[in-house]
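Page 47, continued from p. 46.
Same chain as before, 283 aa.
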Amino acid sequence: MPTSPSPAPAHAPLPLLQADCSNCFALCCVALPFAKSRDFAVDKAAGTPCGNLQQDFRCGIHTGLRDRGFQGCTVFDCFGAGQQVSQVTFGGRDWRTHPGTRGEMFEVFPVMRHLHELLAYVSEALTLPPAAPLHPRLRTALERTEALTRADARTLADLDVGPLRQEINELLLKTSELVRAKLPGRKKNHRGADLMGARLPGADLRGANLRGAYLIAADLSGADLRGADLIGADLRDTNLSGADLRDTLFLTQPQLNAAQGTPTTRLSPPRTHPTHWPPTPTT
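Result:
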């Protein structure tokens, strides 16, 4: 019977849930489709290797992705699903030397990414003391989800993640409410709001509910987002220069990768400044 891992300390890195491309068979470069757009220079069908992929499963233009029109690649993160599928589900058998694995491997990868993303959210929730009343249920959800990541390829390919995601989302919403209730002041509710292009420089958004909000190209420079719930918020091209995002809830690295920021943007570990952010504040 699988045992539940001990909750990680607050903001500690979770190696299992961080991408390790050296142990992955470039699944994001093959299994997933992309369309020619501002994020990708060309069209690519699902299951077709990207034209920039080398024989050793490395990207031939990795250091120049954004300059070559592939900024979408610099935003994506698999939460460690790639190495789990490559090394655990398929036992280190890659799709080139074992072509019979191709179809199932490429089916399993998106499912595994969903599971690892859920594990990341639940793991974070378990580090939050105000959510202690929910910790037993969160640990149960963590254990169930972890067990699924160890299932065989066919089980994973056939898995409907929707019900599990809904169940966990309800727990995360209750977690958010408990945590934000401990913060002072009246909290703004912008859940699912259309804030695309909104000008909110210096806004006080401490403890705000921004779940699923559309913040594309919004100006949040200098805004105070401490304790805000950002699960599912769309931060593409959001200006976070000088914003304070310490102790935000459920903010992921892909969200940050999609945003614009500077060294003055304040974050709590394990979240980091993307390498493509400019070294000096933008004007």
